[in-house]
């Protein structure tokens, strides 16, 4: 039933639990994993880009943009290192795993990738935002639950 499991990985605290749940499911069903990290400014810990009015000749704007670019590259590298370490952990646990990192809006990118990779299950975390914070921040897990074309396992 489960052969291709897409695991949405991020740098949040729940990310480790999501990964461990996916390993348990993959071992129980002899499935392979695809670890996906979506590079997004929505992710906790992503670089912050201050508002710059470069068209108005803002002094120091080029330096701010260059710093942001460097921070973004470091953030992307951190994501790749996380994916590599999780792939190694999966392999050590006897689970076949590969990984990819994609830029984009998390919910849409997860759903689109799951469909193109032909995943039969998505494992994703839920941070527990509710009420006003979910209204303003949105919910990646909620988006995935409503738009995915396969099973979705939400880890709380």
TrEMBL record:
InterPro entries: Rossmann-like_a/b/a_fold, Universal_stress_UspA, UspA. It comes from the Bacteria. Residues 1-155 form the UspA domain. Belongs to the universal stress protein A family. This is UspA domain-containing protein. It comes from Aliterella atlantica CENA595.
């Amino acid at each position: 039933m489960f052969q291709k499991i897409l695991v949405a990985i991020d740098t949040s605290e729940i990310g480790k639990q999501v990964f461990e749940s996916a390993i348990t499911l993959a071992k129980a069903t002899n499935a392979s994993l695809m670890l996906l990290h979506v590079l997004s400014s929505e992710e906790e810990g992503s670089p912050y880009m201050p508002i710059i009015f470069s068209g108005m000749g803002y002094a120091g704007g080029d330096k701010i943009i260059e710093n942001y670019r460097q921070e973004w590259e470091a953030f992307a590298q951190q994501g790749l290192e996380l994916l590599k370490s999780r792939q190694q952990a999966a392999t050590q646990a006897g689970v076949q795993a590969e990984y990819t990192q994609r830029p984009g809006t998390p919910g849409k990118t997860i759903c689109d990738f799951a469909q193109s990779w032909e995943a039969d299950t998505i494992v994703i975390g839920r941070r527990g935002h509710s009420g006003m914070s979910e209204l303003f921040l949105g919910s990646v897990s909620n988006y995935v639950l409503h738009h995915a074309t396969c099973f979705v396992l939400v880890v709380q």
